[in-house]
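Researcher: Please predict.
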Amino acid sequence: MFASVPDPSLILSGWNGSGATVTLRIVGNGKNDVLVVLNGSTGAQLMSLGSVQLGGNYTQGVGIGVTVPGSTMTLSGTVVTIVLGTPSGKVHDEKKAGTMVWTTPSGAATESGSADTEF
């Protein structure tokens, strides 16, 4: 969620906020894996969305990644929603609760509420 309504074309070039195909990538980083969103066409990271430290282990090891191609991103007001496609790679079923930290070029935000599992 953004503090104010973002210009969708600043998130993804030419985007109007309707359904756009993206790929999620989770990179193994020990017990704090990192999620990034990639352009579904070019594979470039959508830098304006930054990255999310998941506060848990969702891959099978450090440096090992999981991709989720065919995901769909939409924008409604201040909320970007991504409906996940089918993951490729080995996903680790994290059982411990964690707290996510979203880092963007504008700063960082920590998930509010009780710690939970993310997927």
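Model: The first strand starts at residue 20 and ends at 27.
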